[in-house]
Target: DNA-directed RNA polymerases I and III subunit RPAC1
Amino acid sequence: MPKVDEKPRVYLEEFRVKNAPEDYGMADEKWSLKKFVKKLRIVIVRMDSFEMEFDLIGIQPAFANAFRRLMLSEVPSMAIEKVMIKNNTSIIQDEVLAHRLGLIPLKADPRLFEYRPEDATEGTEFNTLEFSLKVKCSTNKNQPKDSFRTDDLYENHSVYSSQIKWHPISNQATVHKEQDIGPVHGDILISKMRPGHELDLHLVAVKGIGKDHAKFSPVGQYIFILFTKKKKLA
Model:
């Protein structure tokens, strides 16, 4: 039988490696840093504002998995840390509402901010972003007759992330553009309300990493398809 040098696919899922070789791609050769640096190549296939697809070439599954874990837990991002609730008459409990707001991804560049000290009582323009969310649901006075659609009956019955307003601290407005600060997606549904329901919130966002809390993890979805060497058959 001729020698075959196949490279089967190894799928790196969220919590396990599927179809991995028994040696996990590391027992067939002695590892050295110089050899690793020489072989490693990262080729970006495509990239836009929200997604990036790249190939890791010349790397074992164990190291690719380490990169995955680093992206999940060590890459910083900005997220809502504190929610001051001035008024919440919606059906969502305060703690559930605060948790939901904290998970809304923000597009602020974390490289432009510092980590906020743990003992700091107030934020500064260098480590904090402040937002507000003030929405009140009311009956539409100009509703058409014989219509039962919520869009026709009520105003502000659905609260979306696009309604979160940024309030610059000090001279932040001269450093950051308004379109570069705020939720990544404006169509994230926060709450549904009816006449008489109101939200009046003050939001504080800081810099953090996914190791401290999942809301700081910048990676939403990830799919790794790895290629490893298969032993030659005689």
